[in-house]
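Final report, Chapter 2: Outcomes

The project's central promise was a pipeline that accepts a single protein chain and returns its three-dimensional structure in a standardized token representation, suitable for archiving and comparison. That pipeline is now operational. To close this chapter, we reproduce one record exactly as it appears in the project archive, with the input sequence first and the structure output second.
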Amino acid sequence: MNILTLENSDLTFIAELQPLGWQDIIPTIDFYTKSNFCLPLKVTIDKKIVGIGTAIVHHDIAWLAHIIVHPDNRNQGIGNLITKTLLENLESKRCDTIYLIGTAMGEPVYKKLGFETETEYVLFKDIKSSGTLKTSENIVPFSDSFKNQISVLDYKVSNENRMFQLMPHLDHGFIYVQDNNVEGYYLPSLGEGLIVSTTTSAGQELMKLRFMTKENASFPMDNLAAIEFMSQNFSIEYKTTKRMRLGKKRNWQPTNIYNRIGGNLG
């Protein structure tokens, strides 16, 4: 069993690791292998890739993502090995808070390594909008004049210095503006379509806009305004997954997240 850096040339060999029910992992893994703030690795047995994982560094905060083991090699300690190696690789980065989204299968592994649950995300899928959701006139396309407000808003909610992650997606984004103040933003091209808002009205209106093109949703269960919106407009079941933390607790605001980025960044 060997632990090596996951290279872009490995992409053609990881299709067999694709978990059932997940979105196509190849584009995201491709992004990891090309980004200097990501630390992707692979575990091989007899030169075959049997597991992968990545650490994503946001200054002094990191996320562990796409820790996946081939179905034929589960219960062999590979997931534990990947997680421990990623944590070791982060030691030189001086990250004092490490997050991940724990599935039911992965949670026991992470708990043994000291991760604790901060909250849960609710996950909805197969949402069919009736077309009756009308969006607010306060929602406008992104413009550079609002970039600084978005940066301040995002840090206030996430408590992460991640504006460099948002920047490539701003030109395709939308903002909710009230009296020239940004109350929320929506980035359709970032993961599952990130929505962050400091007000209920902006958050729910941006959710309406998102459902014009999306059929899924996920946000922290702490966000009661988003849950109320879903219950008023849709009658569907949902699942949950856990956001887990190792290290320093951060003052992030789950009630202001109206749709997450994804399982790799919360």
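Archive annotation: The chain has a mean pLDDT of 94.
This record, like all others produced under the grant, will remain available to the consortium after the project formally closes.
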